[in-house]
Amino acid sequence: MEFVATQIAGFWGSFIGLASDPITYVYLIASVFLGIVFGALPGLTATLAVTILTGFFGNKFPLEHSLIALIGAYVGAIYGGSYPSILLNIPGTAASAATAMDGYPLTKQGRGGEALGITTTASFLGTLFGTLCLLIFVWVLLAVSKNIASPEKALLALFGILLSGTLMSQDLVIKGWIAGLIGLAMAMVGLDPILSESRYTFGWSYLLSGFQVVPVLMGAFAIPQIMDGLRATVMVAQVPQLGRIVPKFREVLRRMPAITRSGAIGTGVGALPGVGEDVAGWVSYGVGKASSKESKLFGKGSIDGLISAEAANNAAIGGALIPLLVLGIPGSPPAAALLGALKINNVIPGPTIDPALILHVVAILVLASLTMFIMGLFTARIFITILRIPQTVFLPVVMVLTTIGSFSVGGGINDLFLMIAVGLVAYTMNVMQYPIAPLVIGVILGGLFDETFRRSLLISDGDMSVFVSRPGAAILLALNVLLILSQIPAVKNGFRRLTGKKEPVA
After folding, report:
1. 379 closest CA partner among 136, 120, 140
2. Residue 334: what are its φ and ψ, rounded to 5°?
3. Is 445 a domain residue?
4. Beta bridge pairs of residue 190
5. Contact criterion met (CB below 8 Å) for 159 and 148
6. 55-94 confidence digits (pLDDT tens)
7. How many structural domains is the chain composed of?
8. How far apart are CA 483 and CA 446, in angstroms?
């Protein structure tokens, strides 16, 4: 009980400190607004919003202010994707794809305002649910992580890369693994973290410090989005008229079981390394359809379906920050961009992280969700107007912001060259249907894997049994092996025969 009281007092102190500082509201309002705009405009993403702000803030502002801006944009963008999903049947972000299943049918029934109101409320409550889980479970994992040594860290980093590649591949899983391994190879460039010898720099002094995080983030996430958006022909949106947006309290209260269930699913899925809010939305939507009394209405204009998607993808934000803060492994692509910002500020997530920083993040999440809720209910028509802006007008501005952000972190022209090179590679990978997020996660986690894997071998004098002699390492090794085996067709077919399941018809 004493520990709980201490954490509540610490959170309350952080919350009051932030709430009583006028500059907090400046950052919150601006960043949440920007995030909603990025989420609402098709072609822009939450990852892009967080990445651009990472480039702008970098290490030039106090970490507390940077976190307000980045988390505010993160929360706003995940929610903002619901606007075009509901009103136009065009998902603003991947996280809002499941929202369109019932949001747009509701709009066609003349209930667009009602759909936006219940979505805003479900997003707000889902974010709070994920934040509460973050506050509870992060301490449990921190206690466990203090017993994690180099072998466990290496295998956990590898598992994060492989799991991200597995779950984010559009067709062949091997493509996701290749993308992750490319990122892992990129992380090997620069000075050896143990022997301090240069590797794969080819005499170029710029590469001695390895591939810089921000240019890689900008190139991987921003350049392909901008190029795709400029190539696409998108008509100016014809947004329908809306009625009442503010939901009725009785309606919200009646839907609380669905919101709670979806929040739990979203948090759990969000905590999986590299998975993301879009997977959380679809998983929750499927569970909601299976358990709802109005399952026949799913896909035709179900409020329960809308809640299932939106509460989950927003709860996934808190879930994604759990492995990020405890293990340094991002739970989603936007969380990967947030990890880049922490590293720029010399903050290393893990067992040694400052507990005050975790409480600060929780307080920011609560304030950001409140800001998003108020904006969503009372300024929705402003964001609906923004939907009428063509991509060809907005994307060049984003390109300029991306270039400035990439240049401002290191201040060198080489950062721009790196951004463009990574961007062209990422665009080519997109065309070939290779997922980009595993590559970025590979770059970020590759350094951790490289150092801890080799340190494990140094300590054990080259004995590979160090990865099976420790119980935690043996479990993680088994998970990596099972994950790989589960994607081999022969193993899949053998498992189906054992369980009596028929092969799916192509």
Report:
1. 120
2. -60, -35
3. yes
4. 199
5. no
6. 777 667 888 888 999 999 999 999 988 888 888 777 777 7
7. 1
8. 19
Residue listed under structure tokens 């990978």: 429
Whether 495 has a pLDDT exceeding 80, the answer reads no
Cα 126 to Cα 120: distance, rounded to the nearest angstrom: 10
447's enclosing H/E stretch is helix 437-459
Q: Does residue 501 sit within a domain?
A: no
In tens, the pLDDT along 432-485 reads: 888 887 888 888 888 888 888 988 988 888 888 888 888 888 988 998 898 888
Q: What are the pLDDT digits (tens) for 107-160?
A: 888 878 888 888 899 999 999 999 998 888 877 777 776 667 888 888 888 888
Domain region containing 155 = 2-231+241-469
Neighbouring residues of 334: CB distance < 8 A, sequence distance ≥ 6:
46, 47, 49, 50, 74, 77, 78, 277, 320
Relative orientation angle of helices 355-378 and 303-327, to the nearest 10 degrees: 160
Q: How far apart (Å, rounded) are the C-alpha atoms in residues 254 and 387?
A: 31
Q: pTM (2 decimals)?
A: 0.79
Question: How far, in Å, CA of 493 to CA of 506, rounded?
Answer: 14
Mapping DSSP onto H, E and C, the string for 309-367 reads: HHHHHHHHHHHHHHHHHHHCCCCCHHHHHHHHHHHHCCCCCCCCCCHHHHHHHHHHHHH
Is residue 480 a part of any domain in this protein? no
Q: DSSP per residue over 49-62, as a string?
A: HHHHHHHHHTTTS-
Helix, strand, or coil (residue 262): helix
- Answer whether residue 500 is part of any domain: no
Separation between Cα atoms, residue 145 and residue 149, nearest integer Å: 8
